[in-house]
Amino acid sequence: MENFAACIFLSAAVFFCHDVFAQCCSQSCSLTSGAGAGLLENRHLEITAFLQAQLFGKLLQWRKKYKFENAPLTLDNSFYDYGGISLGYGFTKNLTFEVQGGYFGNKTQNYENGAWIVGNGFSDMGATLKCNIYRSKDSVLSVTMQAGGKFPTGSYNDYTPEGVRLSHDVQSGTGAYSVSGGFLCSIKIKKKQSITLSSVFEYCGINPEEYQSGYSNVNLVSTGIKLLKGLSLIVMFKNENYASDYYYDLKQFSTGYSRLSALPGIAFEFGNEWSLNAMYEQPLFRYFNGIQFVQQYGVTVSLSKKLELKKKKHVENDSQKQG
Predict the structure, then answer these.
(1) pLDDT tens digit string along 106-119?
(2) Considering only 19-28, 94-103, 120-129, 181-190, which range has the smallest mean pLDDT?
(3) pLDDT tens per residue, range 220-237
């Protein structure tokens, strides 16, 4: 049961990272799983590697499709490939620390006239501290709080080999610090089934070019259905709310949005504490400020390994002890 619940937490956490990496905001999200709500067991290390891909291919004005007339520099589509890694360590059964980072291998924007720009590089790094504040005696309810931050280790001022400056959306980093906070809650509804609720708020700072990404709130509801031994179906819904960006204190009207997405997936446990997840993201409802290029779908695959780091015991012989 604990491993089954861990797969749900891992899937939810991966898509927190999926969202913030895609928006080039904070990587202060959780990829760890465990017996508690998003926590690792005492002195356990978890390593998670994941690959993500997203395709953007529609222009929307608010909720309706939009098309520019006689505008050859209009975007035709864009996509990115991202590989990341997360390390989590459980200091106690109630306290877990995590760090995350990765590399954008291909952030591409294709234009209707055949031109394109491509960016790549290391992403910003993030760290998260999570602490369990309540766990019922019957383990029906568990609540964990988390706080984190992002460090601007990625590039925000890259150029193409031809000397063309990459657009904001193609840069691998933001150039700004950010802070985030939130909670994860596990509610057991049946003996072998739980519902996970999670919410993260983030505030981004201003980068050296006076650009500030809007504050955000991402909410997840997820559960799992066991199909076979070691194989589970993950059912998840995600709500995202992003405020408008600012540039030199001027509001950027074609930024910020609200979106609801469905995220079905499969989780497979095998070997000694290994877990393989594959998930698909499909937007259901979208409302965008102004005119924006929006996501059509997303795919994430993750592989996780949990290790127990046992503490060495120092044994003293009775003959060496002094009375």
Answers:
(1) 888 888 777 888 88
(2) 19-28
(3) 999 988 888 889 999 999
CA dihedral 11, 93, 89, 34 (to 10 degrees): -20
Q: Give 2-310's CATH code, choosing from 2.40.160.40, 2.40.50.100, 3.90.640.10, 3.90.870.40.
A: 2.40.160.40
> 127 falls in which pLDDT band (50, 70, 90)?
very high
Structure tokens that stand for 323 in this block: 């009375």
pLDDT at 151: 95
Residues contacting 220, CB < 8 A, separation 6+:
12, 15, 16, 196, 197, 198, 199, 236, 237, 238, 239
In angstroms, the CA 276 to CA 231 distance is 10
Residues 6+ apart with CB under 8 A from 80: 22, 52, 53, 54, 104, 106, 107, 108
pLDDT tens for each residue of 138-178: 889 999 999 999 999 999 989 888 888 888 888 999 999 99
Residue 127's beta-bridge partner residues?
A: 99, 149
Closest to 36 measured CA to CA, from 149, 183, 229, 218: 183
Q: Is the CB of residue 107 less than 8 Å from the CB of residue 56?
A: no
> Phi and psi dihedrals of 289, rounded to 5?
-75, 135
